[in-house]
Amino acid sequence: MNFLKSGIKTVLGAPEPGQQPSVAETVERLVERASNSTLLEDRRDACRALKALSRKYRLEVGAQGLDTLRQILELDRADNETINYALDTLNNIVSPSQFEEEEDKPNIPMNIGDQFTEMFIKDPHNIQLVLDLLDEHDFRVRLSTVQLLISLLTNRTKDIQEIILDKPMGVSKMMDLLGDTREVIRNETLLLLIKLTKGNANIQKIVAFENAFDRLFEIVSSEGYSDGGIIVEDCLLLMLNLLKNNSSNINFFKEGSYIQKMLPMFNIPEESEEVGWSPQKVSNVHCMLQLVRTLVSPSNSAQIISNCQKIMKNVGLLDALCNILMASGVPADILTETINSVGEVVRGDASNQEFIGNVIAPSYPPRPAIIVLLMSMVNEKQPFSLRCAVLYCFQCYLYQNEVSQASLVQTLLPSSSDVSNLTSGQILCGGLFSSDVLSNWFSAVALMHALIDNTTQKEQLLRVLLATNIGSNPVSLLHQCTTLLQQTTKLQSKVALLMLLSQWMSSCPAAVSAFLQVPGGVGYLVNQTCSNEHDDNEYLLQGMSAFLLAICINFNDDSVQTYSKESLKQLLVKRIGVEVFTAKLSEVCKHELYNKAAKHPQLRVGCPVDVLIDYEFCRLFKSLEGVLSQSLETRAVNGGGAGEADLEQYKALIRQQDARLHELVHQLDALAQQAQGLQSALNDSLAANSLLKDENTLLKAQVSANSIPTTQPAATQPPLPDPKLGEYEERIEQLNDEVTRLNGEMTRLNEEVSRLKGELKAAKDEEKNSAEEMEKLKKDQDDLLYLLANYDSKTNEYKLRLLQLGEKVEDDEPTDEENLT
């Protein structure tokens, strides 16, 4: 510090006695001298003094001297020492980190370097001045220039990238520094290029076509590949920047035969177990494994992935990765990343998948590498990240490969082969029903990947039988999964089983039918969907239960009469409601872990608690959610509900009875009209008969008056008959006969009317009884479905209590008649 003070006194002169200049005044004088002095030595001394002050008094030096320092870079290029002082001062001013000298100054903003960077790059010509200094061969000038550019890029990456892109030969000048024989400059240039290429595809392409890969591999080779120092890691980080999300550079890397040059990085000497792995070697190999994964990342195009996978197998890179996989003494994080890399190298490539399936682990007895990996996955003592990596690798092994999927399912089916050998299916079943929650989740998801887009294996898996207890009848795997779903209280196990069943039953009516025959399965889903728990994870469970219930409806072939498609729809509408059901379904995609899982096929979580949802389930949910919701809503609008067939039957019966009723009414009306006509005729006949009787009486009176005897001497003569009297008597007899006939007809008609009225009343009563019976049947059916669901729930609760008490419980499949009763 005394030397610094003496130097400043030399530049500024001694102050007057009793007056000590402030820092701002000192900086002002130095800036004025650096700007206006005619002697180069004076300007150089002023720059030296400003450099000394810039670490502790960055704010004062930057505020007053930024323009002067830029001026020096432009006008004093001939003097390397002055230029070096100016560059170092600028680097101190814009430095993104805080100096130790500034720690006792809390009033200094934390982003002071970023602010000065913004001021410096307002004029893009300033960046050109710095770039031009890269041509200087002087060690200190070139090194300070590179360091200044690193600081500027750290503060304002995108702005500096755009400016450099506009400057001719800007990137080329930086690339030339990789050939500098002075390692310090070369190493700093690597750091500069890592900053420069971050997230800018155009600069990445320029750097790649400036022979960057050749130069980088030369450096890696000269440094000793994986045994090299941190320079190897910097080279690999730069390659990662050039290749990540840049298909053009990946094609260039592939076609330039650079994949072969990666192979020496994975040559692990046999004595490495005794020697051990240094931390730097671990970092180097880790970066190289990330480079491999970048080339075959699922986010790349299918063509690029396929080509890179084939090249990696042909040049022996896949074999080298498998050697690391089976080697002993490999650090856990390297082993984990190697498993991930092997998975992505074989993902979707049948030849590579067959290769990894045939790799034999150096164990006793010898086992396939896949078996050894699965054993690690279900071992709760293994590191969490390693178990996740094994799951991802196994998923890649099954991806779009019906042969490997069929092989897995085949190991679960009854076979006459040697059962002493441990199979992948046995490991997964053991993990599926183990007490370790993560083993449950990993095994269920692994098994689920064997069923993706493979209806044949879904049906084959229904044949898998498990012996749950000694002496008890075996049950199907689906039956046991459904029972476990109802009994477990662990969130991750529930979610895993729901994902497995959803994948299994989608597009597979046989699996849906088997699920519907499991006691309590439907009741559990309904109760879970109706739950009113207010928690993100509970919302997720409710939505996944609703999703599985919708799958049961949509892919139902009506082979189970108790739970036909229509009865399940009616149960959904009555117990849940279409709107509530759709809302529950939409809760799944709102969950934070769902959105995280949907972004990448690999499970990327930091702790076991976050293990919940798998990528392939997200794909299944996205593909079916809209279809299932729309199907249910459409049927609800169209009056769809359970018991629709029965309702139509009753409606047809009512229509028939109504038609018969109308027919009887028409007949009754016709007979009433006929009876009315006959009554009118009868009345006429009676009136005529009465008239004739009166005439007959009158005639008889006249005849009696005419037949009185006279006194004559001659013999008495009989009276002559009146001809009209005979006619009247005959007419009266005819009318009496007609009246008798009409009375008989009237009696018959009255009896017919009475009979028709009775039939009409009976028809109306029958119609009323049918309507009442239909309403009663509807109510009874609703009550029956509700009681069945409650009965299933209580039965499972009692079974669980018996199991907890140590009692043996057997599941008896109810018959259709018992269910109906």
TrEMBL record:
GO terms for cellular component: endoplasmic reticulum; ER to Golgi transport vesicle membrane; Golgi membrane; Golgi stack. Pfam families: Arm_vescicular (PF18770), Uso1_p115_C (PF04871), Uso1_p115_head (PF04869). Residues 368-631 form the Vesicle tethering protein Uso1/P115-like head domain. Residues 647-681, 725-784 form a coiled coil. Residues 726-818 form the Uso1/p115-like vesicle tethering protein C-terminal domain. It is a peripheral membrane protein. InterPro entries: ARM-like, ARM-type_fold, P115_Arm_rpt, Uso1_p115_C, Vesicle_P115, Vesicle_Uso1_P115_head. SUPFAM superfamilies: ARM repeat. Signal peptide: none annotated. It is found in: Cytoplasm; Endomembrane system; Golgi apparatus. It comes from the Eukaryota. GO terms for biological process: endoplasmic reticulum to Golgi vesicle-mediated transport; Golgi vesicle docking; intracellular protein transport; transcytosis; vesicle fusion with Golgi apparatus. Keywords: Coiled coil, Cytoplasm, Golgi apparatus, Membrane, Repeat. PANTHER family: GENERAL VESICULAR TRANSPORT FACTOR P115 (PTHR10013:SF0). This is General vesicular transport factor p115 isoform X1. The lineage of its organism: Eukaryota, Metazoa, Ecdysozoa, Arthropoda, Hexapoda. The gene is LOC112051835.
